[in-house]
Structures are given as C-alpha cells and as structure tokens.
Amino acid sequence: MEKNSVRFLKGVGEKKAEKLAALGIFTISDLLYHLPRGYLDYSEMTPIEEIRDQSTVLVKGTVSSDVRCLRRGNLDIFEFEVIDKEDSFGVPRMSVTLFNRNYLAEKITRGTHVVLYGKAEIFGNKISMRSPEIEFAEDTERGFRPIYPLTEGISLKNMQKTMSSALAYCFEKKDGKIISKTDIVKESLPQYVMDQYGLCALPEAFYKIHKPQTKEDIAAARRRLAFEEILIFRLGLSTMKQKMKKQRSKKMTVDFDFPKFASALPYKMTNAQKRTIKEAIEDMKRPYPMSRVIQGDVGSGKTVVAAALCFFAFQNGCQSSIMVPTEVLAAQHYSDLKPLLETLGMTVSCLTGSNTKKEKEQIKEDIRSGNTDLVIGTHALIEKDVKFKNLALAVTDEQHRFGVRQRETLSKKGEDGTVPHALVMSATPIPRSLALIIYGDMDISVIDEMPPGRQKVSTFLLPSSENSRMYSYISQIAKKGKQAYIVCPMVEEGESEEIKAVESFAAELQENYLKGIRLAFLHGRMKGKEKDSILKKFAYNEISVLVSTTVIEVGINVPNAVVMIIQNAERFGLSQLHQLRGRVGRGKEKSYCFLISDSKNEETRERMKAFCKTNDGFEISRKDLEIRGPGEIFGKRQHGLPEFKIADIASDTKLIREVQECVERIISDPLWFDKDQNKPLKERVQAFFTNADRKINGLQI
Ligand code: ADP
Ligand code: MG
C-alpha cells in the first residue's frame, strides 16, 4: 500500500479507495487538498413554502407521515412526507423519495427531525425531493457544511465522513491549538512568513476549510492555502530562472548593427521598440540565456523586435527560430520577414505541418547544416528530428497558446550544451500583477507605445437589424479598393458544423448583400495550404472581404483592411474582441469595428459598450480578468495559464501582490534555498518540479 494511502483511514476499504482514486485522491494528503467547492450554511434553511422548482436547497423539518416502502424488482423505494411548520390543515409538505437506502429508512418514523439537502422539484402543487442527503437534526451542529466535488458512488455525507476521519487521523487539539500528530501534514511556510502576512498554520487551515464554524474561518483558511499555492508556484518559477542563470548560452561578441538594421526598415522604430531591443541585446550579451517576455498591445510592433534580435544572432554567426501557434501566422511572418531579413543577408525558411515530406526533409537538412539562419514555424519546430547547427535565439510568438513545457523543449535544442536565448511575445496584454505570476521565470519588457499615425479604431455596438446597412457599406468600400473582415456567428465546436456554418453564411452574403464582391471564407479546419493561399490573396487584395471564424484572431496583418464586423459579439471575451479589432486600424486609413449583437443581457451590453469606448488592451484585459477570469481571457483553447486549485488569480489581486512581495523578500537572500527555516518550503518547491511531468503543478500544457 502506498505510504499514507487513504486506506489507512477508518471507513475506507478497497472499494471506497477505488472511488476516491477516480477523483485523483490516493493519499491522505490528496484527500485533505480535496477542498470544498462551497458550503451549506446551516443557519440558512429554506422554508418549504419558498422552495422553487429545480432549486437545490437545505430544508429542516419533521417527518409527518409513515414511511411507505415499495419494492420494484430489486429496488427498494421509500417515501415519506416532511413539514417544517406545526402540523395543521394546509401546511406545505414536501414528499421525499429514497432508493435502496434501507439502513436510513429504518431510522425514520413519523416525528423524526431531519435535515435534507438536495434538488427540489415541483409538479403542480406537489413539492418533492429525490435521494437527498439526510442528516438527523439532533446531530447537526450549527455552522457550515462543506460541499465537495463528488463522483459516482461517493455521496456528500460519505465524503464529509471520510474527511472527518482524515482530520482525526492527522490532527489533534492541544492547548486550544490544532497540531499535526503524524508527518502527513507538515508546515511548509516558515514562521516568519506566517507572522508577517498573518497566515494561519497549515493544520489549522485544513481544519477550518473542512470544518468551519464561521465565515471568518473559511476566509482565513482560504487565504492561507491560496497564499501557499501562489507562493510555491512563484518560487518554482523563480528557481527556474535562477537555474537558467547557471546555463551557458552562445557567445555574442559582435555588436548589434543598429543603423544597418534600421536602414532596412520602411519606417522608424518607436522608442519603446528600441528600448525593448536594447534590453534584449543586453541580455543576449551575457554568458547565460536570456529569458524575456515582450508585452505589448495588438499592433504595437512586436514582430520587428524579434526580427532585430534574429539579425543580431545572425551577426554573431548563429541561428534563430520563431515559433508561432498557427500555420496562418507562420506563413504571414515568413512573408513579412523574409524580404526584410534577406536584404540583410540572412536565409529564412518556414517549417509547418503542411510542408510535403520532401520539403520537410530539405528544410530540416538546411537547419542542420546551417544553411538556414532563421526558421519560422509551428509546433513542427519542436519535433525531435529538428536539429539546429547553432541555435542561439528561440522566439515564441503568442506564447499562451503553447504553455511552459514547449517553451522548455525548444530551449533545450543547443547541441554544444548551450541553451538558446528565449524570447516570448505575448499576444494579449495582461495586467502586471498577473504577468508577474505567469511570467515569473522571465524578465518583462513592455512596448507601451504605438507606431505613429495609427488611428483609433472607432467601435460601435449595433443590433442585427443593421446588418443589411453594414453589408452595403462594406460593398461600397470594397468597390473603392478597401478590404473588410466579417467574423461569422459562432458555432459549436465540431468539424462539420463549423465548415457548414461558415460556408453557408459566406454563400448567403455572396448571393445577396455582397453580389459581385470578391469574397472568400476561412475556417480552422482548412488545410494549411488552403488557408495560406486565401490569406495571400487577401494580403494582395485579390479578395475584398474575408469571412472567417476566429482563426483570424491572432496576429494577422493586412493594413488595407479597414472594417471588422463581428457577429454575435456577446459570445466573445473582451480580450478576444480586442484581438479581432486589432486586425484593422493597421494602416493610415480610418478604420471601424462593428459589434453586432442582439443580447438583452444588461451586463453583457454594458461590457460591450465599455469596449467601444477604449482601445487600450491593458485596460481591456484588466476588465476581462475581473469578469471572466484568466482562463477565459484567451478563449477556450490551450492557454498555458496556471490553473490554481485554491487561489483565484482574477480576484485575489491583493493576495498576489503580497505573495510577489514575499517572493522578492525570500529570494533577495541568495542563500534562502539552503537555510534551515526554509527547508519545508524548498521541498515543496522541488516537488513542484518533480510533478512537472505530470502536470507542472496544475499548469495546463
Ligand atoms: P504585433 O505587436 O501585434 O505583433 P506587428 O508586429 O504585427 O504587431 O506590427 C503591426 C504593423 O505595424 C506591421 O504592419 C508593422 O510593419 C507595423 N509597424 C511596426 N512597427 C512600426 C513602426 N515603428 N512604425 C510604423 N509601423 C510599424
Ligand atoms: Mg504579432
């Protein structure tokens, strides 16, 4: 049996252990970390007469009938009635049905006091509840009852009991304090941290989160557990950063030739761009690998910064790579950067899943031999058989789509034991507090300035009844040689539905509103080559209107496109809308974005109206974070954000700031890792790495 297995607990046999395993609970400590998703407040019972259909309620009452037992096949059905007022004519009753719970039914007779928890249903004027959780009123204490995530075969009561056994197994009360009596739960935080931030000890936190008496208990326990969770994650990343400093990187001895690079550009770089380049060049001149993220709003010009650094690597006789999340983006970067960098003497290639086998062989051979100075590509770049001759710089665009693991894989590519410099370009600007968490292993540069001449994209919220006017406007601008995007109504994920929806939507537009206009559609299920060719045509203005799903959301750059129409705008997060809007307003021309929505929801409308008023990506993501939480900011796709079990990084911003301060304090002592008082913390941080293969401490990868 595994050490500290749940099997050691009273009432947990082989069968129960199997069921717990289905919840990812193997050890007693796994069980303690199985936290309530909410609480039943025993001071807030619902009177039977106020019960609404399909509501989940807690009811306290008296059994007012005999218990009837029916037998159907091998099913024992018990039925009885409950009232919560003095029994008299017309008092509202709730009928309760239990299945095969003979042991329970035996304890119930007319007059028994019960507390029931379950979903109530109302048919006509009959209120009923099937298979509720039952407690006998005599043994209910006041306070809060935890509600846990459950699985088939484990009832709430069951889970509560098992948790009680775990608490009794691990802890005891001594002099009014809860202390561990086993070594299952060891305090991980040094005393000085707990004192400074007013955090309760771990045993107390477990007790309070599973058996709270008051709301304050719950808050104190949550604070302590969330603090610990973020702290360990952050320290893990900091340690990663420190480890990086022990690695070697390629030597960069030749100075960056800024004038030469600048002369190849058709525009002047902004000060923010120059500053970011300078910061990164400083990093790259050091003997250990750079680990830097560039944050900048949509259209702030991150790509050229990457290009400058690739050129710097080239000047030093080294290769670079740029990894992007989609083939569309790879193709676009390729066609943008190839002409620029070739005039500077570099050879650029592009590797994606849609290359033929033969092409791939050739591209890989060129990477291996050093014929290629920069390779741009998708995930294909991190396949095992992609070997570089002397990779010095690995750029990742739109990082959140990848996750930490892939970042690491590519950074291991060096053949001579050196680790390439890592540069991440974040697609979605995020508030600093969140950036410090997510990019805790990196230094951060912020491009806080837009290239000159950019106009604010005027944004309007319109009902779908305005569609015909919108489309005729588009038809007009198309005739004047301008271009537009239409993001079509969202459909459920699913291959055939998605394709059908886009096709029929585009066909309808073509036949009616946009007759004679060159129109094409794009969706996520298309082959890379097909997408590529459509985007090329759009880029060369051979297509005027591009109808698309959100595949165009990331990074596409066609300055001649001046209108963006987003159907069903209410279904998108603000940051996603901002990304979409960022596809226009990229040239000198005045651009417009129309959000089409018939949503009646007040909150949703307010949110969209607020969006119309601001063009500031940082502000938008802050709002989005408040409203939808970090996972949602980036859409439903893989985002690589840490998913914390306890901490809520959207609303715990104050806590995050405290943790950040605490982390800085801890690591400002270069010996913190070796000090006795930090030993338990160090062990937890190390476990964070060992678990990395399973899930990087909850990081979705
Ligand atoms: P993002 O930061 O969203 O990745 P891009 O790198 O795609 O933005 O740049 C958006 C557009 O702005 C591109 O057409 C690029 O050529 C242009 N651009 C970048 N920097 C400047 C600048 N300093 N002045 C004018 N245009 C610029
Ligand atoms: Mg970009």
Descriptive overview:
The two termini are 31 Å apart. With 701 residues, this protein is α/β, with parallel strands linked by helices. The longest helix has 31 residues, at 215-245. The strands form 5 sheets. Strands 14-15-13-16-17-12-18 form a 7-stranded parallel β-sheet, with helices on both faces. A 6-stranded parallel β-sheet has the order 19-24-23-20-22-21, with helices on both faces. The radius of gyration is 30 Å and the shape is globular. The site of adenosine-5'-diphosphate has 18 residues, from α10.
Structure summary, number of beta strands: 24
| Overall pLDDT | 86
Total of helices: 24
Shape: globular
* Rg (C-alpha, Å): 30 Å
Strand order of the largest sheet: 14-15-13-16-17-12-18
Bound small-molecule species: adenosine-5'-diphosphate, magnesium ion
Q: What is the percentage of strand-forming residues?
A: 15-25%
Which stretches are low in confidence, meaning pLDDT under 50 for 5 or more residues running? 402-406, 631-640, 692-701
Helix share, percent: 25-40%
Entry summary:
The chain has 701 residues and is of the alpha/beta class. It contains 24 helices and 24 strands. Strands 14-15-13-16-17-12-18 form a 7-stranded parallel sheet, with helices on both faces.
